[in-house]
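Handout, tutorial session.
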Amino acid sequence: MFRKRIILILTSRDEPDGVSKKLAEAIRKIGTHNVVVMSDDRYGSATKLSALDKLMDEGGEYQYLLEKKDKSVLKDKFAFKTLSKRVNRINNLIKRFHPDYILCVTPYAHHCATEAKRRARFDTQIIYMMTSFYLPKRIHDNITNVYIVENSEIKSALVQNGIKAKDVMVMGLPFEIVPVSDIEKTLKKQELGLPKVKTVYLGIQNKKELEKAYSLLLDQGGIANLAVYCEDQKVLSALSAKAVTVPDMKVVFIQERERIDEYLQICDVAVTEYDVATIYKCMKLGVPSIVLSTNEHEQANISFLVSHGLCLTAKEDIEIVGLLYKILQSDVGEYVSENGKKWVEMSSIDNIAAFLSAYIAV
């Protein structure tokens, strides 16, 4: 009986935009491989959260610690009590599925896979797809076989650190969104009851920062519509009550993350925290973004984007309003829009899936 080859994708709870599932679907569509996706609840500490697991609830905090502290200090602080369990679980996954290779899509998954290979000494190759715009420290090692990176600057940095150029593939990021025509955009706005003025997407997870940015934008009156992403019912009620006091500004609320894309498609500006998937999709749509800089460990990515004219950044909430007017009333918005579209025009999830399907581990 013919058995399709298997690719094992390791991910973790901080993955952006459900990337593991979407990659798995794109690979299965090609038809050469079956794909097994395992999140950290399967290979991590499933019954008891370690200090390392708790850090993962803060997204990139674990990677931030790796960059800021010596590995010995990190081990002393958290003891890695559950790491042996991770090693055994990943090793058992290798024995069970016999994958062609392991594809890691988050820093956490990559660390666990390389540590497991180092300790368990299995031969299965590791491919790491970095969802970052710059090269974090300590990311390179002699265990990972192939790196898939967003841009040539990351590749150059890896090569300078001793990685062979042939082992680094510049393929962009696997975040897809389909642009809509001006007619489709107009019809969608009419369907949502939005006036013909510009529409601003607001997506900030931090509740206090969201409320501050929302209030500042409301104070601008009818300059634009607002599409606000907020899942928290208590916060949503408070925001809705404020919207009633500004009748000349139309506000719609997005409560399901799965619906963000359809609102991004009709927006003219995005105000967001650093969210790699949202920013990349805005670049594909030609929607200029204002990125609120709230965390130190995201600053390198934001600085990279700003230096290449791919977004604007607000260090303080009050700066959002000035930047919004700058985008709406000058050619800055068009400049950022064109830069973004050119930057991502050659990248697609289908290209990455085609490479992964064709890759032969030797």
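The second record follows below. Compare its token runs with those of the first.
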Amino acid sequence: MVLFSCYVIGGGIMNRSAWIKPMWLILVLSFFFCGCHFNVKDVSDIPSDFYIAVIRTTEQKQSTVISFYDKDLKCVGTKKLSYGMVGSTWKHPICNDNHLYVNAAGLGGEKNLGICLDMDLNTGNINELKHGLVGPADCVETDNYIFVCNNLNYKSHIVRCEKETGDIKEFTENVSTIDTLYCYDEKLIAFATDYQGITKSYIYIMDYELDVIRTIDISQFGINVENVCLYQEKLLFSLALDSSQNHIRKVGILSLDDYTIDSIELTECQPLDLQVHNDTLYVSDFSHDANGKIEVYDLKAKKSKVFQLEHTVNCFYLNNECLYTASDKTLYEYSINQEMLELKKKTEIDTSKEKDVHYYVSGIFFKASIN
């Protein structure tokens, strides 16, 4: 948007008078040096009484729909955004201090967006934080920065974007993928897998200047880390494959005190998403058919129970003693405890009626999270 405006204004000025060419040059250079700074867009007010929201996006056009629901799962508003491929089926959007942070990949090629959206959940204003990465895999945020990763041609990249100034800094590593990021105690934790030669899997412990402090080889435990969660100074992470790319049912454990590694063996779930509540680990299974499942693991007693669901489940979300997940058409709310997973409510998602355009669920977030 800014670049287009600069060229249009610059072109018009140059045709009228050559003496103000320096002004055109200043405008263009100002954009070039603005790094990943943002444009502000008003998408109108967000419903003040919303409790939960569902993001639906498409790869066919620059379009995303956010539907807002109250605690009874009644739709109280819908907002349309002019960005394609916002969020991810496999990752959680970030909601912090009444701001939503989520990647907007765009449609590829010249239509690639390479931005992270920062939406104010009070006003609806959007800041476009431009990191420039094609096909971003994950993003995390701190008070001052967002960090975004991607993978391209067997090289992996992490970009740090400063929220206030828009300055960017990049880290590049010759590994096939860096798919998952997490921030803790002024450290950036990145999970990588390298498929070149013997398949290897690593954890990079980095400072916020993107300098690697420590590299941990976790290949013996597994590869392909999709999601992580924090539990008592430990970072739990999903492991769905071993280094020979066979399916496994394992959750890795990274001690954030001494960086040692341990693991948990699950009984049924090949883990995709995982979260902890009241010393209980909840894990979703990579759904290979229409029915998903949740494995509930007691971290104290080291026992698990599996709940079969009557719909697919990828990412899920815990809030106010309930578990939420969504298929392409339905939002579900389950009450949770170690003995049962009971369906309390469900509602049909306000689906798009656009002909030949498929929207899919790419994230859920809450106005306020209380786990």
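Points raised in discussion: Residues 63 and 82 are 5 Å apart (CA to CA).
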